[in-house]
Write a structure and sequence with these properties.
Blueprint: H1 8-21, E1 24-29, E2 31-36, H2 44-47, E3 53-54, E4 60-61, E5 66-75, E6 84-90, E7 103-107, E8 113-117, E9 123-125, E10 133-142, E11 166-167, E12 170-176, H3 178-196, H4 202-219, H5 224-236, E13 245-250, H6 262-282, E14 288-290, H7 293-302, H8 304-315, E15 319-321, H9 336-354, E16 360-362, H10 373-379, E17 384-386, E18 402-406, E19 412-416, H11 429-438, E20 447-452, H12 463-471, E21 480-483, H13 486-497, E22 503-505, H14 521-548, H15 554-566, H16 579-606, E23 613-616, E24 629-631, E25 641-645, E26 648-652, E27 656-660, E28 666-671, E29 676-677, E30 685-690, H17 703-706, E31 710-711, E32 717-723, E33 726-735, E34 738-746, E35 753-761, E36 766-774, E37 780-785, E38 788-793, H18 799-802, E39 807-808, E40 812-816, E41 821-826, E42 831-836, E43 848-855, E44 868-878, H19 882-893, E45 897-899, E46 907-911, E47 915-921, E48 929-934, E49 941-947, E50 953-957, H20 965-970, E51 973-974, E52 977-980, E53 985-991
Length: about 1000
């Protein structure tokens, strides 16, 4: 027959459907009873004794975010005894992705966990034994399907209605025909390979010919053994000698919060991990990579029986802890010390609770990667790094799959991006061949990693995936598939390719999701304030412990750090979760702030003394108050003159002269020291842009919207006064539904202009920025990142430059030319843009405009994101170099505190260039003092340290505060002098 007379793949898919339908040789309905909770989820023990009501298949159940318990009971009919039996349970699953709809967790009558009941794993093992009885409880979560865009009230239980979302579809005991099931796996693996091979590939046609012969046999009746015999030679053809090798790693990326609240993630972890353990009993070859110590800790707390099974699976190599971090955090927004603590708390949990050290950092889905990470990865004892997210780049494809990633300090870590461009793989022929095509370094490199398993909302690997892996293990037409651990992949890749691997230097900027630097202002402000309060709490508690013997609050600080680290997860801190998540996070930040303030107050009070002094938690002296200690404040000399010049206001403190027009717009900042005008146009200028991303509302800012703006130059109210020697100008503006109050302050002798904007933000689909056109010709900006800074071009010479139209900075951003620089420091925001203004026909330098992104108003996934009142504080520092930007950044985030005692710092930088980032007591509770510091400017330096307490010795240690000869060799320390390289981070353990 001519091959083009009918659609061969279509016929074969229909045959496959028929075979799949025949897997169940028999079925027996189970009796169902149900109990719907009108509360938040409750443990099995609290539910099982309550009355359950009869429930029928086809009935509606489950309001949004509700929990319904089902009990399934029955007996095995005589006709089904001796067969392979399973329970088939369908809660009303839809065709959308698993993990984004209803899910359940099955229990035995004694309360032990069986496995999850989810859209792609909707089966349970029959465990009735000789009694031939079925008795199973299912805790079913009616989580709503939210889609991908558009405002929805379903993102919070407080706004969702009570209408049921699902209709219970099935609860049967089924007998499985294992030979028919195996035939289905054979057919699927070969068919999907055939249709992915090129038309001119002989292997494609041989596969189709054999499949059609099997289909002809099956048309006459479902003779599975005969059909499998026809297919067996096709499955026996080995891969070519040069075939690539794919390391298939079981995986279930579970977002610690996203389109579901944290409390639901706790249950998702139990469902998914139980699925994995059940699957490993059928397929002992499974290796399941699982990150995030927080998720293990949830299971340990809420499902102790399941936790013990996980511990056993870790010991036998089935369950493979990876990543060594508390959560898969964002890496752009958290401070450097937070990234250290992600590794410290995660690593310690894995080491103490599971007995493992993770050799890799695992961040497949975070939205770009800070250039400070490679050094921290190595200092934490890891060797490798895995991600995938840069495959989402909108403009420039990332050029490598396996490469050395070099950090801002020069440290390198071997890195892999799975070339199939997914962390939710299914081991399909399409993924395997796509990964082979896209392996950027093919030639010297011959292997890639493929994480497989349903993820984001969990679910994990399935038996169908492992059946495909078995058939693709050594098969002509696809890469060889080996199910193995990430460490086995990386060790092989390192041996094969490390000497030839290319190098990527600096940050890995994601050309997408740039709005996450700004969305959900309260997340950014809560995180920033919490990070600095944690620093203060540790510093003053350590000082009190050393000076007075006060008890150090180890337990409280550990709990608070872990809560802060959880909220740095890459869909919480970036602002891309549902309303419920952010509502709870705001409450958590408020509680953490109050508790940390209490620890600080208690510690300062313990230090005692008389008189009025200021406590300075920053690493630089401020107004005469020593760094990391306390003392009297030295008032700045001089005064501020505030006067009218026509319609303008003029402020002059002898260092800076400012001019504001009648609408309160800052029109001039004259640096009297340099006799230089700082501004190139109206500054502290609020600007509005339309903000309607094409796809991902909370995630994205799109460049076409930045071309359209509205400047807010009308004032409803303007007032000015000098109070306590400080001049202040207040301007009130309104636009549409929002109200803006801007403040400008100039203090005597100050070389900075302190600025503040309070906004009652009620706009929708709008981006608010504040602009500073600066009279400097800068070809690059410098932005603070963890433990250093990065340079980014201000021009758009290349597509790589143009793609960085929105950038992230921590406490400061600096621009300058050869003779003069300006810093913009902040305590409340992260998103910025820096552009070169066109000079037009005028000859001369082009000014540079720096803008801070203050507010957005995305409609999804939280329809009321950022609506409310927010205060943003920042400062313009004319004439600043980068060293001053660093100092002013700390000053803006660590204001002086009042106290009574003059306290000598525990550690001081007597000479040289270093920033003390953390002072704390050791994690092992030995009482040793731990000091972490870094070189901030990107150069070499010799630092002399002075410790203000009696001590035995000082040792350079790793981030886990352990002796490490390699780490110590990188930072020579002797007789109080420490040698530091560019941006080098060093941890010192000082034994008392």
């Amino acid at each position: 027959m001519h091959r083009d007379l009918y659609d061969e793949p279509l016929r074969l898919r229909r045959v496959l459907e028929r075979v799949r339908a025949a897997e169940e040789a028999d079925a027996e309905p189970l009796a169902i009873t149900a109990l719907a909770l009108d509360t938040e989820p409750e443990p099995f023990a609290d539910v099982v004794g309550r009355p359950f009501a009869p429930f029928a298949v086809g009935s509606a159940w489950g309001p949004a975010w509700g929990t319904t318990w089902f009990r399934l009971r029955g007996s095995v009919p005589e006709r089904m005894r001796g067969a392979r039996l399973e329970l088939a349970v369908d809660l009303g699953f839809t065709a959308v992705q698993p993990g984004f709809q209803a899910e359940g967790l099955a229990y035995r009558p004694d309360g032990s966990v069986i496995k999850g009941v989810e859209p792609r794993t909707a089966h349970l093992p029959h465990e009735g034994g000789d009694a031939h009885e079925v008795d199973v409880y299912v805790e079913a979560a009616s989580n709503p399907t939210l889609g991908w865009r558009g405002p929805t009230p379903l993102g919070d239980r407080t706004t969702a209605d009570e209408e049921p979302l699902y209709r219970f579809a099935r609860a049967d005991l089924v007998a499985v025909d294992e030979e028919v099931r195996a035939l289905g796996h054979d057919l699927e693996a070969l068919l999907e390979l055939a249709v992915r091979l090129p038309e001119d590939e002989p292997r494609r046609h041989r596969l189709l010919t054999g499949l059609l012969r099997a289909a002809d046999l099956l048309d006459g009746g479902l003779d599975a053994p005969a059909a499998r015999a026809v297919l067996r030679p096709l499955l026996a053809a080995p891969a070519t000698a040069s075939a690539h090798r794919v390391s298939a790693v079981g995986h279930a990326h579970i977002d610690s919060a996203w389109l579901w609240p944290v409390r639901e993630t706790v249950r998702k972890c139990a469902r998914t991990f139980a699925n994995v353990l059940a699957l490993a009993e059928e397929h002992p070859e499974l290796r399941f990579a699982c990150s995030s110590a927080q998720q293990y800790a949830w299971v340990q707390e809420h499902q102790p029986g399941l936790w013990e099974r996980i511990r056993a699976a870790v010991a036998d190599g089935t369950f493979v802890p990876v990543g060594g971090m508390w959560v898969e955090s964002d890496t752009n927004l958290p401070g450097g010390e937070s990234m250290v603590r992600q590794l410290v708390h995660g690593g310690r949990f894995f080491r103490e609770e599971l007995g493992v050290e993770c050799p890799e950092v695992w961040l497949p889905d975070s939205f770009g990667y800070s250039g400070s990470l490679p050094q921290l990865v190595r200092l934490a004892g890891a060797r490798w790094f895995l991600s995938q997210k840069l495959s989402w780049n909108q403009t420039n494809p990332f050029p490598h799959s396996t490469f050395w990633w070099e950090g801002i300090d020069g440290t390198r870590v071997l890195t892999h991006f799975p070339p199939a461009d997914t962390y939710n793989g299914e081991i399909t022929a399409d993924e395997l061949l796509r990964g082979q095509r896209q392996l950027r370094d093919s030639g010297p490199a011959s292997r890639a990693l493929l994480p497989f398993g349903y993820g984001d909302g969990g679910g994990g690997p399935t038996r169908e995936m492992l059946e495909r892996a078995a058939r693709y293990a050594d098969l002509e037409g696809v890469p060889r598939v080996v199910v193995e651990s990430p460490a086995e992949f990386f060790a092989g890749a390192e041996e094969e390719y490390a000497d030839q691997a290319p190098v990527w230097s600096g940050e890995m900027y994601l050309e997408y999701h740039r709005g996450t630097y700004t969305s959900q202002v309260a997340m950014k402000q809560g995180n920033r304030r919490t990070e600095h309060l944690l620093r203060e709490a540790e510093l003053w508690a350590s000082t009190a412990a050393v000076r007075t013997g006060a008890a150090y609050p180890h337990e409280a600080l550990e709990r608070l750090w872990r809560s802060a680290l959880l909220h740095q997860f890459h869909d919480i801190l970036p602002g891309s979760s549902i309303a419920w998540v952010h509502r709870e996070a705001r409450e958590v930040y408020a509680r953490m702030g109050a508790e940390l303030e209490g620890i600080v107050d208690t510690s300062i009070a313990a230090l005692g003394g008389g008189g009025e002094v200021a406590f300075n938690a920053g690493p630089f002296a401020v107004d005469g108050v020593p760094a990391l200690g306390s003392g009297p404040v030295r008032a700045a000399p001089g005064e501020v003159v505030l006067e009218r010049d026509g319609d303008d206001l003029v402020l002059d403190n002898g260092v800076l002269r400012l001019r504001l027009d009648a609408a309160g717009v800052l029109t001039s900042v004259h640096d009297l020291r340099a006799e230089r005008e700082v501004l190139a146009g109206p500054a502290h200028l609020l600007q509005l842009h339309p903000d309607r991303p094409s796809n991902w509302d909370a995630w994205d800012i799109e460049p076409q919207h930045l071309a359209h703006r509205t400047d807010l130059v009308e004032a409803d109210e303007l007032r000015a006064e000098v109070r306590g020697g400080v001049a202040e100008v207040v301007v009130v503006r309104t636009h549409g539904p929002s109200r803006f109050e801007q403040r400008l302050r100039l203090a005597p002798g100050a070389g900075r202009v302190e600025l503040e904007t309070t906004v009652n933000w009620q706009h929708r689909a709008t981006l608010l920025k504040v602009a500073f056109p600066l009279a400097v010709h800068a070809d690059r900006s410098s932005a603070e990142v963890g433990f250093g800074h990065v340079h980014r071009p201000t021009h758009t010479n290349t597509s790589w430059d143009a793609a960085r139209f929105e950038i992230c900075a921590h406490r400061w951003l600096h621009v300058g030319d050869a003779s003069y620089g300006v810093a913009l420091v902040n305590s409340t925001t992260s998103g910025h843009d820096v552009t070169r203004a066109g000079a037009g026909e005028r000859r001369g330098s082009a000014p540079t405009t720096v803008r801070l992104s203050l507010c957005r108003a995305p409609g999804f996934p939280d329809p009321d994101a950022d609506r409310g009142t927010h205060t943003f504080r920042y400062a313009l520092v004319p004439g600043a170099d980068i060293a001053e930007a660093v100092r002013e950044g700390y000053r803006a985030n660590l204001p002086l505190r009042r106290g009574a005692a003059a306290v000598e710092p525990l550690v001081a930088v007597a000479s040289g260039r270093a920033v003390v980032e953390a002072v704390k007591l050791a994690e092992d509770r030995s009482g040793d003092v731990v000091v972490r510091l870094y070189e901030p400017l990107g150069g070499r330096t010799s630092v002399r340290l002075r410790f203000g307490f009696e001590h035995r010795d000082v040792e350079v240690v790793d981030l886990h505060e352990r002796a490490d000869a390699e780490v110590a060799a990188l930072a020579p320390y002797a007789d109080g002098v420490l040698e530091l390289g560019p941006f080098q981070v060093v941890t010192l353990r000082v034994r008392r």
